[in-house]
Amino acid sequence: MDIVYIEGLRVDTVIGVYDWERTIQQTVVLDLEMSTDIALAARDDDLSFTLDYGAIADRITAFVAASRFQLLESLAEAVASLVLTEFAVAAVKLKIGKPGAVANATDVGVIIKRFSTAGPDHETT
Length: 125
Fold this sequence. Notes:
Helix content is about 30%, strand content about 30%. The protein contains 3 helices and 4 strands. It has helices at about 40-45, 55-65, 70-85; strands spanning about 1-15, 25-35, 90-95, 110-115. The protein has a 4-stranded antiparallel beta sheet with strand order 1-2-3-4, covered by helices on one side. Helix 2 (about 55-65) packs antiparallel against helix 3.
């Protein structure tokens, strides 16, 4: 299984559990690794046979910007589910961070791996 990735996707959104966080936008940063088979696309040099990372980034950006989750964990689950249901992805590994959320830390966040209904046979690294 091959990997198509998006790294450092920055999106401003309302995220957080504190009252003050519910009134501002904060930046979250997403890294995705998506398992898919790129052999046909590579052979035919044809975008229609692979993942269009521009379209995926646009869809995730719109979704995250409009979301109002309290927890990064909830946002991560929702983004992973979106990717698995809307794109030809066997598995997704998602890292989502909230830079500046903790003093003296560059970033904090979660990393999850989720699989399509095909199962974990297509695990990402």
